[in-house]
């Protein structure tokens, strides 16, 4: 039996598109011309991995490469594909549809493109870009986030539920009358006590978020940062937070948006793979709260985790 000297073109194309990472790349390159670094940040992949896949895609004539200065830019131009490849790409693009992973790719890509515009302004010496850089050089990255809590009512008592090592309490304590930091883990509370040493308006309590050691209406506000995905019944913790709110109080939740990183259940003990807006609205209703708000936070393109949201729920006054 004769053995073909070369891989048939169809088999070669199918092999190239048989890798999910390459499909994710082609999907973004179908919409935008991107550099290796931009793709790496949008897809949360190492640059070496992205470069390796791009080499395969470029050699297979799936993408066009253009050089600008020292950067190599890549783009999928559908009309430039050979007819069989074009038909195969259209089929693949339709078949992959949508998923939490692809939605996260799109969200991070949008942030990459925003950052690119800012970089371009700075590069060409436009006032806006120059001012951003001047402010960063003079005052650093963190002053805006650290100043915004001054908006909070200075008479408030705030519960930091699942306080961990106390980073949220540390930021808010200078601006409110009292912080109650609650965590079920003694080691976390010990770390928080050490971190917040000298802040006399912070109280530490050991307890479960589903059975808080606080009286009804004890606090004006409560916050839960990146904890609910660890709980079997997050809705119970939300209801408990609602119970301890005074009339007119507000609950703030920060957690992961819905995602499909199943490995997190095993590697980090996550009970839930993020939460969508409908789930948060359901918590609000069951807890007897109202005015649910849900906003995706801008993704940090240097971070490796899923996207985050901030949600607010209010107790009627």
Pick out its properties.
317 residues; Rossmann fold; 43% helix; alpha/beta; Arc Repressor Mutant, subunit A
Query: What would CATH call the homologous superfamily of the largest domain?
Result: Vaccinia Virus protein VP39
Largest sheet: 7 strands, mixed
List the domain count as a whole number.
2
Give the strand order, joined by hyphens, for the main sheet. Answer: 6-5-4-7-8-10-9
Helix fraction, binned, reads 40-55%
CATH top level class name of the largest domain: Alpha Beta
Order of helical and strand elements:
HHEHHEEHHHHEHEHEEHEHHEE
End-to-end separation: 84 Å
Structural class: alpha/beta
CATH 2nd-level architecture of the largest domain: 3-Layer(aba) Sandwich
Rounded average pLDDT: 88
| Low-confidence region ranges | 1-5, 121-130
How many helices in DSSP terms?
13
CATH topology of the largest domain: Rossmann fold
